[in-house]
Amino acid sequence: MTTFKFPNDFIFGSATSSYQIEGAYKEGGRGMSIWDTFARTPGKVENGDTGDLACDSYHLYKEDVQLLKNMGAKAYRFSVAWPRIIPVGDGAVNQEGLDYYHRLVDELLANGIEPMCTLYHWDLPQALQDKGGWESRETIAAFVRYAETMFKSFAGKIKNWITFNEPWCVSFLSNEIGAHAPGKTDFQAALDVAHHLLVAHGETVKRFRELGVDGAIGIAPNTEWFEPFSTKQEDIDACARRNAYFNGWFFDPVFKGHYPQLALDWYKAKGYEPPVQPGDMETIAQPIDFLGINYYTGGVGRNNPEEGLLEFEIVDAAFDKTDFDWNIYPQGFYSVLTWVKANYGDIPIYITENGAYYDSDEDNGKYHDPKRIEYLRKHLIQLNRALASGVNVKGYFLWSLMDNFEWAFGYSKPFGLVHVDFKTFKRTPKDSYYWYKQVIAEGGLES
Ligand code: PNW
């Protein structure tokens, strides 16, 4: 038996996002978002599910906070729906929207839970999409104004801010692959979106400093880790391309003020280029206070000239998989974290998401999910290795506190520690909830 201890001041928490849990889509003056539109587009979301009601956290947030408290969470990562704050994106501010998040934040603080606020977890106001969305540079100014509204309204209450959740998903998954809103399949559009989002991030950090906000600000990219299938140079090169496309494309601009040359050259040769204007890269590289890392999966990959623009192919090397069909690849979590330290230095890191979808077995009102526990255990051990290697990880936000609207999969594939009945909204902690509670109480785990 080995014991894996975490530092005494390590912050264990959990995470959710607005569209996935709030529901109340027509209440409190909320405007429509691109996810309302996308979910209503036939064939985009499994079973035609929408976030109209979701977990009804708009009304039941006090129950959510009690679940966090009883679990021993020290912090909660949630996101704000931009269309609740500025319903048409760049028009009037909606006080009722601000009021909802004040109720939530006050409730968290009253229960000793530190709020970590994500400004953008994908619910862009539809009115802005109608004017081009993130493909348009105009959206940058609208975002900064929304962010500023939040900074001013929550001064002194919210100390930790994240500009964007998973820029790769916002750009490539949503505009190249088309699996998420707005559902385009255009590589150049994905590059445009990625660039405007990065500039919006940098402009927001600048504004945060100018306003002298008392707190810290960062960004939360999603990461994946692919190792070469073989020691052949072509496989090594293919994995380097994949890493530059998925991880480096966002990390290099934020930390080094340039896109990865490898990917730039590759895209240019195929006729694609990010729409960089003078000064943009300096703006993007504003120093941040912490880095959020989301990690779920990885594996092995190799060169294949037939495989799309990247000529990279994921090899099914028969790793165990979650019910989401994602490889369970905990060693990649360690690799990502040590890669960040080696390439970008000792910036404080929060793991802003890690978790898994598994079905749970219901038995007399109890929900058993042993595989989720195994997944989490394996990843926390790799995280512990990273800490032992001197990676400056300050906290871990498990995805997700409760079952919720899992984007293109609707309600069919929930990630929660807490089961939600989507008819009655009854919340029931699963075995994994009690397991995590024990990890938090003991400040570590055993293998
Ligand atoms: C992340 N992919 O989404 C999000 O931040 C969460 O909102 C989501 O619920 C969670 O992970 C689980 O999926 C992703 O296709 C969705 O690579 C899809 C991908 C990656 C992340």
Automatic annotation (TrEMBL):
Q: What is its EC number?
A: 3.2.1.21
* Keywords, in A-Z order: Carbohydrate metabolism, Cellulose degradation, Glycosidase, Hydrolase, Polysaccharide degradation
Q: Name one GO molecular function term.
A: beta-glucosidase activity
Q: Which SUPFAM superfamilies match?
A: (Trans)glycosidases
Q: Where is the signal peptide?
A: none
**What general EC class does the enzyme of this chain belong to?**
hydrolase
The organism is Paenibacillus yonginensis
Q: What is this protein called?
A: Beta-glucosidase
Q: Where is the active site?
A: 166 (proton donor), 353 (nucleophile)
| Source organism, top-level taxon | Bacteria
> Which catalytic reaction applies to this protein?
Hydrolysis of terminal, non-reducing beta-D-glucosyl residues with release of beta-D-glucose
What family name appears in the similarity comment? Belongs to the glycosyl hydrolase 1 family.
Q: Which residues are substrate-binding?
A: 20, 121, 165, 296, 399, 406-407
Which BP terms does GO give this entry? cellulose catabolic process
A GO cellular component annotated for this chain's UniProt record is: cytosol
